[in-house]
Amino acid sequence: MTGAAMTERGLKGFVREELLGILRRMLLYRRFEEKAEEAYAIGKIGGFCHLHIGQEGAAEGCIGPLRGDDYVISAYREHTQALAKGLGARQVMAELYGRVSGSSGGKGGSMHIFGASQGFMGGHGIVGGQVPLATGFGWAIRYRGEDRVAVCFMGEAAVNQGAFHESLNMAAVWKLPVIYVVENNEYGMGTAFHRVSATNVEERSAAYGIPSSVVNGQDVLEVWRHFEALVDEVRAGTGPRFVEVRTYRFRGHSMSDPVSGTYRSKDEVAERLERDDPITLLRDRLFQAGMLTPEELGLMDRDVRAEVQDAVDFADSAPLPGPSELYTHVYSEVNEHGRLFFDGRDR
Amino acid sequence: MAEITYREALNQALAEEMERDDSVFLMGEEVAEYDGAYKVSKGLLARFGELRVVDSPISELGFTGLGVGAAMVGLRPVIEFMTFNFSILALDQVINSAAKMLYMTGGQINVPIVFRGPSGAALQLAAQHSQAAEAWYTHVPGLKVVNPATPSDAKGLLKAAIRDDDPVVVLEGELLYNIRGEVPDGDHLVPLGLADVKQEGSDVSIITHGKMVHLALQAAKRLEKDGIEAEVLDLRSLRPLDVDAILTSVKKTNRAVYVEEGWPYAGIGAQVAATIQEEAFDELDAPVLRVTQADVPMPYAKNLEQLAKPNAERVIAACKRVLYRT
User: Fold this and answer.
1) Element (H or E) spanning A205, and its range?
2) Residue A139 sits at the chain B interface (C-beta within 8 Å)
3) Domain B196-322 has CATH 1.10.10.60
4) A117: nearest CA partner in chain B
5) Which residues of A touch B141 (CB under 8 A)?
6) What is B2-183's CATH superfamily?
7) pTM of the model
8) Is the ipTM of this complex over 0.90?
9) What are A323-335's pLDDT values in tens digits?
10) Other C-beta atoms within 10 Å of B226: how many?
């Protein structure tokens, strides 16, 4: 595709400020994840840590067109989606560091980032487990007669779970305002989707009569435009939608896993990095369209790096949760009678 | 006071709470048009409409998770399992979502939901339809579990469960739905975590919950003929657990027998026995004994099923053993 054609198709309708905003946020997601990667390597972040590097176009393009009071829920590769929905880099980084100033007070960690007041509903660690929950958000929206929308992210491997199919059926029966988004990065951990799947992702909603579409997740503007239209349709009460966002993960499944290995080659990853980096693709379009200079990009990146460094400094200096936090938030209502814990604490 | 069935008591609890709070809705298999597989929801569809009394597909994992999601954003769902045997399909949502949500979110999102339906064996329904679910759920921090034995407790506990801000598992009993009993008029609530002495006695404490309360009362009556005064303590609520009531009874009788419908290994009785020996060891004049279902899947053959289930004879024998009167 020529530069002129990309400008025509890709930049149409977005003014320069919007485009720079999209680029800056995607850069923030990238730098945030790179810092998380560094912090993990030196033991500041523990447990499982799944990075979204390479998939930033999906986070920005799907969440950007939403309203503040719309719901977003995701699986465990959700740091950038939380940022996109309005959580601060400080809160998210502090959660990764297991600090009391984190979004869940240090009790959730990388896989359980939540921002209830921003409509970011997690952060869920069981593949497909968030899909019925999103369906419940849709149910509640319909129940109350609201015009919100619920967006449910999942990886492509989740479409082989029963929870996915049960949810899509119910969402279709009750015409719930839910957009089910499959971020297809081609591999469920180290298993290529096609090796364990009888049909393609995009076909999976057909049995329930839910309209399906496919979008190139590395082209953030295409994703954004596509979602803008979908959100309007769903908000108007036309029932659920199903979208496959084709993308690629540039890192291993989690920080414990190699980037390439038995399941995909170094060459494959190198080729995709070269061809499909969503940030590079947008940057080059902006250069070609004369909307951005290398100097301006340099300033933007410096600004973003400073924001991420501030988040790291904040997280690193934030206190650990106190020992008394161990027993808070198990129950929201401690009943007047009886014992709730059986480890000697109440005696 | 009116005498009504356990089924009617549950129905009243649902109707009253739905009347009181628009955010309460009932969802499950056959709850609406069919009036409930066991008729607990009879008449509710006609009264509250199809938005609030909802027939689900046979998708336990799906509709349970839907309920949890709705509760996360402020509704108060009552999810009915046609029986708790089918709740096993939904365990991921009950444990990984409902029970842990408040903790994982650092207190941001609570889950005010009720999971209810019959649990435990009925008659000759064989292995997959005859099992007591209480130990599984009571094991999990974040959940609350109640198991009412009488119409009065059924109504009062279900109403309290619906108003509770945490997930509550309400275990009913298929063989209890037809029993009758007096239920106080008005807004009758039974607080979670409060046990009830169903019969006073000073010789031995029979501690139990749910359907087994009736077995314990039968056994206590027969023990009277042998001059043994058994106390029957109905826990009603398994988490929170009324440990004070357990210790008070054991301090009075110095002997305890636990009776439960479930399996013995890591069962409710195992926890109660551990608690008694940890906190009232010096009060005991005999080991705590348990009467439970045999440690096998439930057989179909009538004679084998009878052998597998707890019965009054076994309770009586256990009481006599702790009294050294065998």
Assistant:
1) none
2) yes
3) no
4) B108
5) 330, 340-341
6) Thiamin diphosphate (ThDP)-binding fold, Pyr/PP domains (3.40.50.970)
7) 0.96
8) yes
9) 999 999 999 989 9
10) 12
